[in-house]
Amino acid sequence: MAYSNISHHIPCYEIITENALWAIKKDDDLLGYALHCLYIAAILDLPSDDRGRCEFIDYGRRCYMHNDIIQQIDKFENEYQAIKAIEWYTQTSGFPNRFVNETCRTLSMARFFKIRYYLKNIHIQLEKLHSDTVNWVPPVLPVYRGEVVSLELHQKLSANVGQRFLTTAFLSTTCSRKVADMFCASDQDQHQVESDKVSVIYTILISTKTTQQKAFVDIQDHSTKKYEYEILMPIGTLLQSLAMRKREASGP
Q1: Which residues of the chain have pLDDT under 70?
Q2: Residues 114 and 152 in one domain
Q3: Range of the domain at 193
Q4: N or C: which end of the chain has fewer CB within 10 A?
Q5: Number of domains in the chain
Q6: What pLDDT is stored for residue 123 in this prediction?
Q7: Residue 54, CB half-sphere, CA atoms under 13 Å: how many?
Q8: Among 117, 121, 64, which residue's Cα sits nearest to residue 95?
Q9: Angstrom distance (rounded) from CA 104 to CA 182
Q10: Which of 110, 130, 150 is the last residue of a domain?
Q11: Claim to verify: residue 107 and residue 14 sit in the same structural domain
């Protein structure tokens, strides 16, 4: 079964590509979610071989032909090891993390196939680390994500309180509220944020004892930025928006 783009088949879903969220508009219709997860599972069942590696690198070069990231792709080709997929993901170069997430947000199955090599590598490592993570986390784990988003996206999120969202890419979160603050405009820098932008912090509550299908992982020990205390959430994680509150300028 092949689908060139899931969004062509599921009109009740709204793609919010700016921050990798896919809003589910009908509670009783999860067909798109099921198709998305099935295709990801099929991709992850494919072998991680030299052919996939070459296709991944070649596709990256085509996408960034006139970009400085091409140098990072060359470095990836020469130095990458599959057992260090997470370490490479946390690098600030933009490759492979930016490349992979931008590709995933398109929901294009043809493009998913081209990045299967790296998706498989990072999935294997996340699966191995997941069991270690669930051994120490509390029954409900609060994590945070800070970013500056467009007013349009903020309005969409406000209008969808109570709705469910699907992550269409890897979602980086942190155990530290202070770290989340670093990723959105700080109070003293608010005046520097463009007028059509909004500084937001997401608080995500993970029910750790019932979340069995998706391998949320503490990747601090494998990250190049250990101070971020990162919890990485995989593609296809289902979230629900419970509330939205205005962020106070003087406090958390």
Answers
A1: 1-20, 22-30, 32, 185-195, 210-215, 245-252
A2: no
A3: 138-240
A4: N
A5: 2
A6: 92
A7: 3
A8: 64
A9: 25
A10: 130
A11: yes
**Which residue in this structure is represented by tokens 């994590």?**
143
- What spatial distance separates the first Cα and last Cα of the chain, rounded to whole Å? 47
175 with 203: CB under 8 angstroms? no
CA 97, CA 30: separation in Å to the nearest integer?
Answer: 28
Q: How far is CA 87 from CA 27, 73, 102, 136, 237, in A?
A: 37, 15, 19, 22, 21
Alpha helices in the chain (DSSP H): 31-44, 50-63, 69-79, 85-89, 97-105, 109-114, 116-134, 151-159, 177-182
pTM for the whole thing? 0.81
Predicted local confidence at residue 247, as pLDDT: 59
Find all residues with CB under 8 Å of 145, minimum gap 6, and list them.
Answer: 171, 172, 173, 174, 180, 183, 201, 202, 204
A 10 A CB-CB count for 224 gives 12
Q: Which two tokens mark 167?
A: 């992550």
